[in-house]
Write a structure and sequence with these properties.
This protein is of the alpha+beta class. The protein contains 2 helices and 4 strands; from the N terminus they run E-H-E-E-H-E. The N and C termini lie close together (9 Å). It comes from Alkalibacterium kapii.
Length: 93
């Protein structure tokens, strides 16, 4: 069994309140969970209005599949949302 995750730090453009930030974050989380069948949550920088840390995790028996799905999530976030990925950390167990 492979447990793999990625912790992503995002800079959210044109977010001037926590309400605007939550709207973007909830959209990202719902869309990635539904399209890629993985777990997602906001795990840090919850009180900053233009920055967030999101965590994505997946369980499988294939390491390559896990990595590809998580990389697809990163690509989709940058392509579909007005955010910049500042940093990401891979986690594996």
């Amino acid at each position: 069994m492979i447990l793999m995750g990625v912790e992503v730090t995002l800079l959210i453009f044109d977010s001037y309140s926590l309400k605007e930030k939550r709207s973007v974050i909830k959209s990202i989380l719902r869309r990635t969970e539904n399209r890629h069948h993985l777990s997602a949550a906001e795990v840090g920088d919850m009180e900053m209005h233009n920055k967030s840390v999101l965590g994505f995790g997946i369980v499988s028996n294939n390491r390559t599949l896990c990595r590809k799905r998580l990389e697809a999530v990163l690509s989709e976030i940058e392509a579909n949302y007005e955010v910049e990925i500042l940093d990401y950390n891979w986690l594996e167990a």
